[in-house]
Amino acid sequence: MTSLAWVVSIYSLSVNDINGGSIDFNNYRGKKILVVNTATGSPAASQQIAELQQLYQQYQDSLVIIAFPSNSFGNEPGTNQEIKAIMQGTYGVTFSVAVKSSVKGDSANVIHSWLSDKLQNEMMNSRTIRDFQKYLIDGTGRLVGKFDSSTNPLNASLLNAINQF
């Protein structure tokens, strides 16, 4: 028996956070959401995470950043506690960090499953192919953009999209 996928509101989804609580996307209605899969062991980690924190500080009134630590590409072998220590202790991260999870394939977390499936998000089919890939959701819950891992958080194209939507 096959099941049919259907449009799902991002606001109906939630995930566990690295602090033992939950991240309920319904709490972010009216704000833009930037979803980023992170890996503290990646060669790009220091610049990407530092710039994500700068971006969050600059736009925190209108933008929510949610990091999804993942070892899907072999650069996040640590436990949730180790990841938390690095994200908060080393990088001073104050944006939301989800628990470590897969971001690709059938084992992807519920948010990355939503991001990758046009039948659910109404925008695009997508694959997460590297650490630090970014997805932008506008204040109405619409997926409006995908940014490759080579796009740094303070890149003009990402800033323009944040300001546009």
Report what the structure shows.
- It contains 5 helices and 7 strands; from the N terminus they run βββαβαβααββα.
- It is of the alpha/beta class.
- It has a single domain, classed as Glutaredoxin, CATH 3.40.30.10.
- The strands form 2 sheets. Strands 5-4-3-6-7 form a 5-stranded mixed sheet, covered by helices on one side.
- The longest helix has 15 residues.
- The radius of gyration is 15 Å and the shape is globular.
- The N and C termini lie far apart (40 Å).
Largest sheet, strands/sense/barrel:
5 strands, mixed
Helices and strands, in order, run as EEEHEHEHHEEH
Rg over C-alpha atoms, rounded to the nearest angstrom: 15 Å
Which structural category fits the helices and strands? alpha/beta
Helix fraction, binned, reads: 25-40%
Please work out how many helical segments DSSP would assign: 5
Shape: globular
Uncertain residue ranges:
none
